[in-house]
Write a structure and sequence with these properties.
Strand order of the largest sheet: 1-2
Shape: globular
Oligomer: single chain
Radius of gyration: 19 Å
Strand content: under 5%
Order of helices and strands: HHHHHHHHHHEEHH
Number of strands: 2
Length: 205
């Protein structure tokens, strides 16, 4: 037990030392705002929160996406085409679920899942945009920031963006000398990515 605690703290310290530029650096803030402007995105607090909420699925939405993915292997060509088009239209938020089917026993499902992922990535923002949005959100800290970033984390399909979000969670982990209740509750989250992120953030804080 003691060895595991020691290893966890050591890893957390290494991660903390390797963090990217601070979100509250004025130069970084201006650069991040410019990146969002260039992507035709607003960067007020409400828009930043909505950016991540639109890239997050609820449990009910996840089930709907799974049903669409199942239809990628439907017998009718028109059904397969419609399902693929709808998945691509939903954007990067469905990539996590599509990746689960890249080696599907149904070769048609696997092939279409791969094509959907590529089409989504071709249309999505450059990786610098969600990373910039995460830093701005952490720097401003509007109500709901922790919930939005924690909910989004499993859907971050790029590791550098995920790292930025995890760093932000660590910055927000302690308030008035106490661990934030959102992160404490997330230690029992049903999703392992959120549980791990909450534990890391609390250790780093």
């Amino acid at each position: 037990m003691a060895r595991r605690v020691y290893l966890l703290l050591t890893v957390s310290l290494v991660l903390a030392c390797a963090r990217p530029a601070a979100a509250d650096d004025p130069g970084q803030v201006k650069l991040d705002e410019k990146r969002l402007q260039n992507a035709n995105l607003k960067h007020d607090d409400k828009s930043l929160l909505e950016f991540f909420r639109h890239r997050t699925l609820t449990d009910a939405e996840r089930e709907n996406v799974r049903l669409l993915i199942d239809k990628l292997g439907a017998r009718a060509f028109r059904v397969r085409e419609h399902a693929a088009a709808e998945l691509v239209a939903r954007g990067v938020v469905v990539v996590e679920l599509l990746k689960e089917h890249l080696k599907d026993a149904d070769l048609e499902v696997a092939r279409r899942a791969e094509k959907c992922i590529q089409a989504i990535k071709d249309k999505d923002y450059p990786v610098e945009v969600p990373a910039a949005a995460a830093r701005l959100l952490v720097q401003r800290r509007p109500a709901g920031t922790l919930d939005a970033l924690l909910a989004y984390l499993p859907f971050a399909d790029n590791e550098s963006v995920a790292d930025e979000v995890r760093s932000g969670l660590a910055d927000l982990a302690v308030r008035d000398g106490k661990a934030d209740k959102v992160l404490v509750a997330a230690l029992n989250d049903r999703h392992p990515v959120r549980r791990a992120a909450a534990g890391e953030a609390l250790c780093r804080a």
